[in-house]
Design brief:
332 residues; alpha/beta; disordered C terminus; Rossmann fold; 15 strands; globular; two-stranded parallel ribbon; single chain
Length: 332
């Protein structure tokens, strides 16, 4: 299976690409070549890396054709941010690809109206990022219905993992907040600390992509949340982080994702929280996938027991240093 991953050296690609290689895919990664994966893996030695400036090639109208000429069976687009960019790629690979997967964001929902928020909840995006992502989703799913484009969209929540600074208890990315907690100082929280976050490890997001590929017939023409089973309030983030720093635990910001990500089960009920590209706060969101549930992530008839995602959690939560309860984090 020839698989092309666009933007494959980022947080999701760090886990997704090696997993694809181990599953027997012939993987080509298109990226700007400005970074290496966040974790080393011998599987990268079997990956073809091609340097591409997507923004420039989109402007020239050549990027979609470049991808099509690679003759992929599967295309995974992790860095598409405008409808025009999505259109170029979709039109170029239409009729030539078995499965196109797009990385969206739960920011397509905008502020929560109903909690938990399901995948089929009407979109009310705000901000350029959310609006463009919602437009991409509408275009791709519309093309799937009208023209049979074999597309699946995965909407991650607040991605956490090595190399990624999480939202702090004050609802922003100021690392000084963690210093205050370590010193026992007070930290001001918005809305009494009742706003919610939904950390999800990048390995789990990769697991949803893998599950969609493995269950293509169920996933085609659908959008799915890649989120944890529970949201966590900023008040609880402050309490847990303060406990860790006062107990002398090493200053590893990644542990913030543990509280919700420990209980993440792809394809099960979940909450979606703010996307890291948009630090404004949303209410907790999430819910059961529209038609994903038992079918997409079933292992031997047991819902939520996807072996690939489970193995990734076992490997990567511990590797990421997410605390002594890595065993709990690996449960499906």
């Amino acid at each position: 299976m020839r698989t092309v991953v666009i933007g494959g050296t980022g947080h999701i690609g760090t886990y997704l690409v090696p997993a694809l290689v181990r599953l027997g895919h012939q993987v080509t990664v298109l990226s700007r070549g400005e970074r290496t994966p966040y974790q080393s893996d011998g599987a990268w030695q079997r990956v073809e890396l091609i340097e591409v400036d997507r923004e420039a090639e989109d402007a020239a109208g050549t990027f979609g054709q470049r991808v099509a000429e690679l003759n992929p069976d599967i295309g995974i687009d992790l860095i598409c941010f405008t409808e025009d960019s999505a259109r170029q790629l979709a039109e170029a690979v239409q009729g030539r690809i078995q499965h196109l997967l797009h990385c969206g964001t739960i920011w397509v929902h905008g502020p929560s109206v109903i909690v938990p928020t399901r995948e089929d909840t009407p979109r009310r995006p705000f901000g350029e990022y959310g609006v463009q992502k919602a437009a991409i989703e509408a275009y791709l799913l519309g093309k799937a219905r009208r023209d049979g484009l074999p597309v699946t969209i995965v909407h991650p929540g607040h991605i956490c993992g090595p190399g990624w600074t999480p939202v702090n208890p004050a609802g922003n990315f100021d690392l000084g907040v963690f210093d205050k907690l370590a010193q026992g100082d007070g930290v001001l929280l918005p809305n009494f600390g009742l706003e919610t976050l939904n950390p999800v490890h990048a390995a789990d997001v990769a697991g949803v992509f893998l599950a969609a590929i493995a269950n293509r017939s169920t996933a085609l023409g659908e959008s799915f949340h890649a989120v944890a089973s529970d949201a966590v309030t900023l008040r609880e983030v402050r309490r847990e982080r303060g406990r860790l720093v006062r107990s002398g635990s090493r200053p590893d910001l990644r542990v913030l994702g543990r509280m919700a990500a420990d209980r993440f089960r792809p394809g099960r009920r979940g909450y979606a929280g703010p996307h890291p590209a948009q630090p404004q706060l949303l209410d907790g969101q999430g819910g059961p996938p529209a038609r994903l549930p038992a079918a997409l992530l079933r292992c031997r008839g047991r819902p939520g027991r996807d072996r690939v995602a489970r193995r990734q959690r076992q490997d990567h939560y511990l590797d990421a240093g997410w605390g002594s309860n890595g065993r709990a984090a690996s449960r499906c």
